[in-house]
Design goal:
By secondary structure, the chain is of the alpha/beta class. The protein has nine helices and seven strands, in the order E-H-E-H-E-H-E-H-E-H-E-H-H-E-H-H. The chain has a seven-stranded mixed sheet, with helices on both faces. Strand 2, helix 2 and strand 3 form a beta-alpha-beta unit.
């Protein structure tokens, strides 16, 4: 990979499925806040004009032939980031809830030395920045609220992953996060596509392979469009799925390192 300049090259990956109503404004806000960041919208098999709206707003666009889910879309984005030599890959939702004003704070908390200084599996990487930085909704800023069952699941996941990480994490299901080259090359090949895998299992994989994870408090913005689906039945189902996803992530065996040389991705 090319050597990092003074200012890191940042790619913002926006996974989007039928988000034509919001993706254009999301991309515009990102580009206005960070004109030196590149924005890649991964159109996850949308049936609407998500791709067209993203292009009109100035984003790079990758159109998947069918819906793969957030995990598949993010793996595509990570592969693009590795192949094009980016130092940082950020994940931002297309619905406008993730405030781009916080992106620079997340990037500042990263270890931008690349793959050097690896922490031991499950370690915190003391003395260096983190490989993954989460934008945490429940870390002292804002008043973001969730239902009882969903909140219980989130707290349970946070407790377990905090133990693995060796540091306090309060929002492990957040889709607002940034990663450095070290985590990026791992995720380009091994990012999980299962339900909650893109958040929970991806962190387990990262921690088991020696990545350091931390969080930065953020405030969530109101949704720019659409309505969040909330009901007691859905909340209970989320709780059950969260337990199953965490259990599977913990019992799966992973080698001590999963980093992949960028050249290997060119051949895959």
């Amino acid at each position: 990979m090319p050597a990092r300049s003074t200012s890191p090259r940042v790619l913002v990956i926006v996974p989007a499925w039928n988000e034509s109503a919001t993706v254009g404004a999301t991309v515009q806000t990102l580009r206005e806040a960070h004109p030196h960041y590149d924005v890649l919208v991964v159109d996850d098999g949308s049936g609407d004009d998500t791709a067209g709206r993203a292009r009109e707003s100035g984003a790079l666009v990758c159109q998947l032939p069918y819906n793969l889910g957030v995990g598949g879309a993010m793996r595509t984005g990570y592969r693009y980031a590795v192949r094009h030599g980016y130092d940082v890959a950020a994940q931002v939702d297309a619905d406008g809830q993730h405030d781009p004003a916080y992106l620079a704070h997340l990037v500042d908390a990263l270890d931008l030395g690349g793959t050097s200084g690896a922490a031991p599996p499950g370690g915190t990487g003391e003395g260096r920045g983190a490989d993954i930085v989460i934008g945490a909704r429940f870390a002292g800023l804002g008043d973001y609220r969730v239902g009882l069952a969903r909140g219980l699941a989130m707290r349970m996941l946070a407790v377990v992953l905090s133990r693995l990480a060796g540091t306090r994490l309060t929002d492990v299901t957040s889709g607002f996060r940034v990663v450095n080259r070290r985590a990026m090359t791992t995720f380009a090949v091994h990012y999980p596509a299962e339900y909650l895998g893109d958040t929970v299992e991806s962190l387990v994989i990262a921690l088991r392979t020696g990545c350091a994870v931390t969080q930065v408090p953020v405030v969530m913005l109101p949704r720019a469009g659409g309505v969040a689906s909330q009901s007691p039945a859905r909340a209970a189902l989320y709780l059950v799925r969260a337990v199953v996803a965490l259990g599977l992530a913990l019992v799966r065996r992973w080698p001590s390192t999963l980093e992949v040389e960028p050249a290997a991705l060119e051949r895959s």
